[in-house]
Amino acid sequence: MNDEGDHLTVETAREMDATDPLSDLRDRFYVPDGEVYMDGNSLGPFSVDAEAALEHVVDEWRELAIHGWTDADPDWFSYGERLGGRLAPMVGAEADEVVVANSTTVNIHTLVGTFYDPDRGEKIVVDSLDFPTDHYAIRAQLRQFGRDPDDALRVVESRDGRTIETEDVLAAIDEDVAMVFLPSVLYRSGQLLDVETITEAAHDAGALAGFDLAHSVGVVPHDLSSVGVDFAVWCHYKYLNAGPGAIAGLYVNERHFGVEPALAGWWGNDKATQFDMAMTYDPAHSAGAFQIGTIPILAAAPLDGTLDIVEDAGGVAALREKSLALTDYLIALVDDRLPECTVGTPRDAASRGGHVAVEHPAAYRISLALKERGVVVDFRPPNVVRIAPAPAYTGFEDVYRAVEHLREILDGEEYEQFDRQSGGVT
């Protein structure tokens, strides 16, 4: 080991864990025994808080039955709005600008379908590294407007296959653009985009700005309202640990309140008139209007519990501070111990989300070898092992151990025992 790497020892990792003010949070999670869990950017683990919240509503269902809609504590009727209010500080929004509802993809459909206006401009700006469901939904909505997606989508291409340059996004925005819809963090490389600059450029061109925050909510603070973002969507099963397929969230800036959603449903009706059962839709004057069907309480309750953890941590800002320390440490270890690998994630903290893309030609088989050793990561084509040291339950020694396992796998060429990628869940 060279002198520059002398601090990259297991003893130093343990010292950092010992002085970590958030280290006690780990005791609230059911991290699988014997595993180094580094896949929280795909699915966060179960927690005692999520379990308690879920058991609470199960007990209420048993004891109250239908009366739970009004008599539960908290009542189920306003569950989505109340959770939206709890989430609002995490994304820098007013309480009524956020609601818990639907799935991420459904929220993309309803928000893009609502706010896309061909009279404003035909084009929607996206990028070539987006998560596919975003493009699926946007293309479907463009077809609903009678537009050819191949013509109406303006795709910002990556220069390096990893990242998107802000200047390329800005160059794509002109008077023909109706909307910009981009991720806050790229799902493969972990690049954090400049939401504020992109939003300002969109507005200067007369376009709207929307974002998919799936890989940033819960690990990166946002300031959506003051930046002026028009709308945003996200999931809660990654860094917010609300469970597989947990109910999603959305944000709509208050200047758009009163617009009728493209996918109207009775749960988005104004609460005061919802049970009038009128055949004419009366949308809520809030983000709540974008709810569609009845809120699935059992799928929302775990989020209520996990938000306690975020608040007890001191908010997303505290989690972000630890996340950056963890990913800084991970990058340093890869540089020092894994010369065969490349870090595909921006090194600048201001341009980095919560995970690190470790690149290697045999990444798929390496990911399988890591899992065989109890190091849970995932693979993203063509050559990325995604390692996500989620700050609520991951320690610096965990990061050290993950890299040590990877070093041993490379030394022993253990990945050679696995078949090359043939599809399936990664």
Structural account:
This protein has helices spanning 10-18, 48-64, 68-71, 79-91, 104-115, 132-144, 149-152, 166-172, 195-204, 224-227, 297-313, 316-337, 363-372, 396-412; strands spanning 36-37, 98-100, 123-127, 153-156, 177-183, 208-212, 231-234, 249-252, 342-343, 356-359, 375-376, 378-380, 384-387. By secondary structure, it is α/β, with parallel strands linked by helices. It has 2 domains: 3-30 and 314-417, Alpha-Beta Complex (Aspartate Aminotransferase, domain 1); 52-312, 3-Layer(aba) Sandwich (Aspartate Aminotransferase, domain 2), CATH 3.40.640.10. Helix 10 links the parallel strand 6 (208-212) and strand 7. The relative contact order is 0.17. The model has no long low-confidence stretch (mean pLDDT 96).
Question: Would you identify the CATH architecture of the largest domain?
Answer: 3-Layer(aba) Sandwich
What does the main sheet amount to?
7 strands, mixed
Order of helices and strands: HEHHHEHEHHEHEHEHEEHHEEHEEEH
What is the CATH domain class of the largest domain?
A: Alpha Beta
Poorly predicted regions are none
The number of E-state strands comes to 13
Q: Could you name the CATH homologous superfamily of the largest domain?
A: Type I PLP-dependent aspartate aminotransferase-like (Major domain)
What is the arithmetic mean of pLDDT? 96
Number of DSSP helical runs: 14
Query: How many structurally independent domains?
Result: 2
Kindly estimate the percentage of residues that lie in beta strands according to DSSP: 5-15%
**CATH-assigned fold name of the largest domain:** Aspartate Aminotransferase, domain 2
The radius of gyration is: 22 Å
Secondary structure: helix percent: 25-40%
Question: What would you call the structural class?
Answer: alpha/beta
Q: What is the strand arrangement across the widest sheet? A: 2-8-7-6-5-3-4
Distance between the termini: 33 Å
What would you call the shape?
A: globular
